[in-house]
Specification:
The protein has about 350 residues and is mainly alpha-helical. The protein contains 14 helices and two strands. The chain has one domain. About 65% of the residues lie in helices and about 0% in strands. A hairpin with a 7-residue loop joins strand 1 and strand 2. The longest helix is centred in the N-terminal third of the chain and has 31 residues. The two termini are about 40 Å apart.
Length: about 350
């Protein structure tokens, strides 16, 4: 909105700063951060009053988690409020990528909210049925894929190789939707410990802020040998807003957590990262940068598949962060070490920009 206002006045005076994506990215980060910190205390109190006993805790999970009973969930609403306000303030609202990413963020957030609400209301960890959730997610992701692909080609670019891609044609629409849905659920599976999902999302968003900015610049894209996506640079502002919103949430989610993100936040954030990766044509790089989320998902798939076939468990408990808890690692140890892994993976992901 502010960009369109500044554009109307021909970017005169201080309004000229708004012309630059780097300035708007920094402003979006600070806006989301401040909004999150300001609304946080009252919002958490409201959730605590309305939810009473808070998020249901699994009886078959780590016993240390039983002490978290009474902690309210749906803290993702804090993230969404600060994120969406920051997006609408600082992004170019004529950019189709903005509305595609907003559709995924808000749509997945709504699905997650309904799931959290069902859990709290019924005092159960089951929530909305998996089929209903996936159907809603693919509907939202399909709409976003249509909006995004209308602005880009349908090639799947291969990292580490310059100008190498796989032409996918109409299948790319399905692939794009799968990336968004898959990553939304991957972040959702990772959100099982205080601070575990929020900081890796911040790291991934920061990495893709750089990637999106470079992909949106024809000169940088040509020099690095990465696909140039006109207007993708504005996605750096969205990434910065995600960083600010998650950092504000992490202030209250730091151990011992005063609030949980819930599916409301994890689905929305994962879906947003997936949409950004598709729009910037770096879907495979997302698998590297978000390798922690991929590993968490893979651990669940492996555990279920092997158990159904053999009746034996590969991990003591899945997702894999619970496996390390069962090995005797403290929750804070698991979280910080997983953060370190996320930083390493982000550096590897960034290296793909030059190693071509």
């Amino acid at each position: 909105m502010l960009y369109l206002i500044a554009q109307y006045f021909h970017f005169e005076g201080l309004a000229n700063l708004i012309r630059y994506q780097t300035f708007r990215a920094g402003a979006a980060l600070m806006t989301a951060l401040v909004i999150g910190l300001v609304i946080g205390p009252r919002f958490i109190n409201m959730l605590r009053v309305r939810q009473g006993k808070g998020q249901p805790i699994r009886e078959d999970g780590p016993q240390s988690h039983l002490a978290k009973r009474g902690t309210p969930t749906m803290g993702g609403l804090m993230i969404l409020i600060s994120l969406v306000i920051s997006m609408l303030l600082w992004m170019d609202l004529t950019n189709p990528f903005v509305w595609a990413c907003l559709a995924v963020t808000a749509g997945f957030g709504l699905i997650g909210f309904l799931d959290d609400y069902d859990k709290v209301k019924k005092r159960s960890t089951a929530g909305v049925s998996g089929r209903a959730r996936l159907a809603g997610e693919f509907l939202v992701a399909g709409i976003a894929a249509w909006l995004i692909v209308s602005q880009i080609n349908t090639n799947l670019y291969v990292p580490f190789l310059s100008n190498r891609y796989i032409p996918m044609g109409p299948l790319y629409y399905v692939f794009a939707a799968v990336v968004m849905v898959g990553f939304g659920n991957a972040v959702n599976l990772t959100d099982g410990l205080d601070g575990l999902a929020a900081m890796p999302v911040v790291i991934a968003a920061g990495t893709f802020a750089i990637i999106a900015y470079l992909a949106g610049r024809a000169d940088f894209a040509h020099y690095l040998g990465i696909p140039h996506v006109p207007r993708a640079g504005d996605l750096a502002i969205l990434c910065a807003a995600i960083m600010g919103a998650c950092l504000a949430f992490l202030w209250f989610n730091a151990p011992p957590a005063a609030v949980f993100m819930g599916d409301t936040g994890s689905l929305a954030l994962g879906g947003a990262l997936g949409a950004i990766a598709v729009a910037s044509h770096h879907e495979i790089v997302l698998l590297i940068v978000g390798g922690l989320f991929v590993a968490e998902t893979a651990s669940v798939i492996i555990q279920v598949a092997v158990y159904k076939r053999t009746g034996k468990r590969v991990f003591k408990m899945a997702p894999i962060h619970h496996h390390f808890e069962q090995l005797g690692w403290k929750e804070s140890t698991v979280v910080i070490r997983f953060w370190i892994v996320s930083i390493i993976l982000a550096m590897i992901g960034l290296s793909t920009l030059k190693l071509r």
